[in-house]
Amino acid sequence: MGVQISPSILSADFARLAQDCERVAGAADWLHVDVMDNHFVPNLTLGLPVVESLLKAVSTPVDCHLMIDDPDRWAPAYAEAGAGSVTFHVEAAANPATLARTIRAAGARAGAALKPGTPVEDYVDLLGEIDMLLVMSVEPGFGGQKFMDVVVPKIRRARELARGRDLDLWIQVDGGITAETIEICAEAGADVFVAGSAVYGAADPAKAVRALAAQAESATASSWWCSHTSG
Ligand code: DX5
Ligand code: ZN
């Protein structure tokens, strides 16, 4: 897989969700849906009933980012509902490896997310159980925050670990991804890019998605790890 863009609908109009999803159809690889429970993060967004309705209304695959307590209990239902990718936070999961297997068994790609302060070194064994590692580049909870460049070495380290073990691991970066920050993430090793305000704050969201993808593709082509991106 090459570069993929997953616009975050957190920056869309929640009263017009399906229409706003359509605005990136054909350009976006995924729709990134931020589920927040007001416990794991200090914000409340939407949950399973809204995701179930969205899945019926949109054609783009859905990438659920669960910022919730007790994902061991709640995450499998998002996979069973038909989300193409379900990502839980390792800080909240009682048994990340078991949960990843359950999500995969339900037919979705399994993702594990790390907050900015959570080291990837603590989860090396988990990398073989998941399809995607999400490296958060802001503290989870809100859109429109400033990119934390202290996480760039973690993206690079995650890509080194995946390559060292010959894993086909997608590395997603989420938070403050814009025209100014996407290239440094692609160069470091990310290949799936979440962007909320940079997409939905633009006059033409689909055009913004294509521009971000083009930037990430050219940065990847000249990166240290680009031999990994064939296919
Ligand atoms: C933050 C969310 C992000 C957020 C990104 O907790 O996980 O997906 O919507 O928004 P921007 O791209 O505006 O930082
Ligand atoms: Zn997110």
Structural class: alpha/beta
Shape: globular
Please identify, by name, the CATH architecture.
Alpha-Beta Barrel
Helix tally equals: 8
Arithmetic mean of pLDDT: 97
How many domains in all?
1
Strand order of the largest sheet: 1-8-7-6-5-4-3-2
Strand content: 15-25%
Number of strands: 8
Order of helices and strands: EHEHEHEHEEHEHEHH
Contiguous low-pLDDT stretches (5 residues minimum) are none
**N-to-C terminal Cα separation, in Å?**
5 Å
Describe the structure in your own words.
This protein has 231 residues and is of the alpha/beta class. The protein has one domain (4-221): Aldolase class I (TIM Barrel), CATH 3.20.20. Helix content is 34%, strand content 18%. It is built from 8 helices and 8 strands. The chain has helices at 17-22, 48-57, 71-81, 96-105, 152-164, 182-188, 197-200, 205-221; strands spanning 4-7, 31-36, 62-67, 85-89, 109-114, 132-136, 170-174, 192-195. An 8-stranded parallel beta sheet has the order 1-8-7-6-5-4-3-2. β6 (132-136), α5 and β7 (170-174) form a beta-alpha-beta unit. α3 packs parallel to α4, α5 runs parallel beside α6 and α6 runs parallel beside α8 (205-221). The longest helix has 17 residues, at 205-221. It is globular and about 45 Å long. The model has no long low-confidence stretch (mean pLDDT 97). Bound molecules: D-xylitol-5-phosphate and zinc ion. D-xylitol-5-phosphate (DX5) binds at residues 8, 10-11, 32, 34, 65, 138, 140-145, 174-177, 194-198. GO terms for molecular function: D-ribulose-phosphate 3-epimerase activity; metal ion binding. Belongs to the ribulose-phosphate 3-epimerase family.
